[in-house]
Amino acid sequence: MNVPFVVPFYGAIFALIYIGLTIRVIMLRNTTHVSLGNGGDPVLERAIRIHANFIEYVPLALILLTAMEMQRRSIYVLHILCLLLLLGRICHFFALSRENTVNALRGAGVMLTVLVLAVAAIILIIDFFRILPTT
């Protein structure tokens, strides 16, 4: 029996979210008639930052999580980390979509995203030293 890979499943979900964020920015650009930058429109500016922040963090997290999966890490650990990343990105979206972007939801989104990056990085570093030859 073949066991499905975990990270590609979540990668596909993140790709669909990214497409949604892209379409949102495009629609706002069409509405505001701003083709470059934000034109001083705060709603467009927030949408651009949500879109940009997503693409700044998610690919690196997916690379680290894929490396963990390639090392045959527990699918439960992978599911937990992927779900935390997903929850973090959802929190970040809702937090920055508000007019007042200083809120607990934004902090939660950032913390969950950084937590996933840190845990994955630490696990991979420990695994690297664990498999080094001792000769």
Give a description of the structure.
- The chain has helices at residues 7-32, 42-70, 75-97, 104-130.
- The chain has a single domain (7-130), classed as Membrane associated eicosanoid/glutathione metabolism-like domain (Four Helix Bundle (Hemerythrin (Met), subunit A), Up-down Bundle), CATH 1.20.120.550.
- The N and C termini lie far apart (38 Å).
- With 135 residues, the chain is mostly helical.
- The longest helix is centred in the middle third of the chain and has 29 residues, at 42-70.
- Helix 2 (42-70) packs antiparallel against helix 3.
What is shown here, in short?
By secondary structure, the chain is mainly α. It is 78% helix and 0% strand. It has one domain (7-130): Four Helix Bundle (Hemerythrin (Met), subunit A), CATH 1.20.120.
